[in-house]
Amino acid sequence: MKTLNPKKILIASSVHVWLDTRIYFKEAISLAENGFEVVLIARDGANLKEAVHRNITLVKLPEMRELSRVKACRQIYKLALDSDAMYYHFHDPELLPVAWLLKKRKKQTRVIFDMHENFPKALLSKDWIKPPIRKMLVGTVRVLEPRLLAACDGVIFAEESYKKDYPFLRRTVDVYNLPHDPGELAREQGADLVLTYVGGITKIRGAMEMLALVKVLQQRMANVKLQLIGPIAPALKLEMMAYVEEQRLERHVCFYDRLSYGEIWTELAKATIGLCLLHPVPNYMESMPTKFYEYMAAALPILSSDIPLWTRFLSENEAGWTADPFDSQMMADDILEVYKAAPSSRLAKMGWRGRDAFLKKYSWQQEERKLVDFYEAMRVVAE
Predict the structure, then answer these.
(1) Distances from the Cα of 154 to the Cαs of 168, 223, 266, 369, 378, in angstroms?
(2) Glycosyl transferase family domain spans which residues (predicted)?
(3) For the ranges 23-32, 115-124, 248-257, which has the lowest average pLDDT?
(4) What are the angstrom distances between the C-alpha of 326 and each of 16, 62, 256, 321, 337?
(5) Which domains, from first to last, does the chain contain?
(6) What pTM did the predictor assign?
(7) The predicted structure's pLDDT at residue 50
C-alpha cells in the first residue's frame, strides 16, 4: 500500500463542475493557499475558462450527457483507491457509498463529507419523482444516510440548520457558503430597473414567478430588465423562452447561463435589485440562500420570498424586504414604490446596509479559517 501524504487532499464531486464557487473558489483554493496539495475531481464545463491554481491538480470528468452519475462515482472511487492522499473530501450524497467503501479499503485515510443540503428534505421537493416513489426513496435515504455518514471521519455543514437532524455525528464543523469580498463594485448607473437572479434556475427556485413579475412591471414601465444568471435544464429553458415570446418580453429578459466567478460580480454591478423568489418547500424553510450574501457583498438590496427566517434576516440587517412570491402584482407595487419614489436613496441605503453587514459578519474569510482548522485538527488525529 502507498505511503499516504499527510498534506494531500482529494476533493471530488460527481455532479458539480470544477469551477463550482464553493468547491473550487472557496474550499479548494483556501486549502491550497494554506499549505495543502489539492487534487480536484469534478465535471468539465466546456464554456468555463479559468487558470488552475498552482497547488491544485485538476482531473476533469466528462459532462453529464457523456458520463452518467453512476459511472462518475465508479471513476471517482477508482481514482481515490489509487491516490496517496490522506484526506478525501466528498461533495454529493451519491458519493457517500464511495466514502464508505473507501474507508473500508483504506482505513488509515480521513474521509470527509461536505453537506450542501438536507438531502431527505430536498428529495421531498423533487417533483420529477412520482410521489409514491419519492416517499419510498426518502424513507430509504433516512435509513441509509446516517449509517454512511457515521463511517466518515468528519462532516462539514454548509448550513447551521442541518445539525439538528444529525446529532449522532461525532466530528462536525459549520463552514457556511459565504462569498469572498469582491471589493466596492463600480456600479453602472443606467436608466433601467435591473432585476437580477444568481444561482441554479428551477421552478421551485422561482423561475416562472420571476418572469411573471417582469410581465407586470413592463406593463407599468418600459425600462425594466431581468438578468437570469445560472445553469438551467434545457426543457425548462424552452418553457421559459416560450413564455417570454408569448408575453413579448424579449427586450426585458436575458439568459446568461453559468458565468465565471468574476463575471458574476460584473453583472451584479449592473443590477438594481437581487431576487430570491424560492418556493416555501421544506429544504428552504430553515436554510439561508447563498445568493443573499452575494447580493449583500455587491451592495444590492434584496427582494425575497416571505419565508419567516428570511424575513427576520433581512429586517435585522436592513438589507431588503420579503413578499409572497406568487403575488406578482404586490411585488411589482413594492418595487415601484421604492424605485420611483427615490431610486438613488432608499434602495441604495438597503444595499449599503447589506454590504456593511456582509463585511462585519458574512464574508468567506472566517469560514476559510474554520475549514483549515478542521483539517489541521484531523491531521493531529491522523498522526
Answers:
(1) 12, 51, 36, 16, 8
(2) 192-342
(3) 115-124
(4) 30, 38, 24, 15, 19
(5) 5-178+364-382 (3.40.50.2000), 193-361 (3.40.50.2000)
(6) 0.86
(7) 77
